[in-house]
Every structure is written in structure tokens, then in C-alpha cells.
Amino acid sequence: MKCRASTKELEDDYFDKCFENFLKKEIDYLEPKLIFAFSSRTWNILKEKMDKIENIENAPPIKECETKGRRYEPTLVQAHGYLYSYGNKQFIIPLAHMSKRLLQFYLRNSYFDYLADGLKSLQFYLKM
After folding, report:
1. Within 10 A of 18 (CB to CB), how many other CB atoms are there?
2. 121 versus 8: which is more confidently predicted?
3. Whole-prediction pTM
4. How far apart, in Å, are the Cα atoms of 91 and each of 27, 54, 72, 125?
5. Which of 101, 52, 51 has its CA nearest to residue 76?
6. Burial of 77 by CB count in 10 Å (0-12 exposed, 13-18 middle, 19+ buried)?
């Protein structure tokens, strides 16, 4: 968890600096096998800043577009629970922040159904 704050009050520049000064360096140093990206802000920053993210299997592809004020698609709602690769040995599973689980009904019956599907995909790719 990095740079936790009320995101409505902060400018994008704040998150750009936080990513460059902390999170990117930590990811490069630790080289984690799996990153969980909780929240649309986190997912959007990773898509924009990490140029090697690619979709796997049925995951919606990452592409540039200018709709709805977003620079890259898919949105978090579309990517929620799918497995994405970062380079050759790292993976990302974007997930909606749990605090909105009960407030929005765009997710399946169980929040964790998505997580289980993403982890099954990861197991498949780690066996390769």
C-alpha cells in the first residue's frame, strides 16, 4: 500500500511522483511474481507507467484510447480479476477496492470469484 490518501483531493502529479519514487523502485528491486492492483487509480497508474503490461487469455486488451477521459483501456471494472503479465516473470491481477464491494453491483456474486479465476490462470502460467 503506497501513498494512501483521499484521492479526490490529490492531483495526478502526486501519484506520478509516488509511483516513480517508491512503487516502481520497489517492484524493480523485489521482482514480485504477483501484484494485486486494488482500486481504479492504482490500475490506471500501472497501465500508464509500466509499458510491458500485456493481457493474458480472455483478459481485455490494454490499448490507448481517449474515451471518457481515460487514456488507456480497459477500465478496472472490465479488467477486474483477470490476469495480466508484466515482462516475462511477473503478473498483475487488478481488483476493485473492497470498500465498494457492497455499494456497486457490477461484480459477480462473490468478489473472490474473480480472485480465484485470476489465481487459477497464474498457476497455469507458472507451470509452463
Report:
1. 17
2. 121
3. 0.75
4. 11, 9, 18, 10
5. 101
6. middle
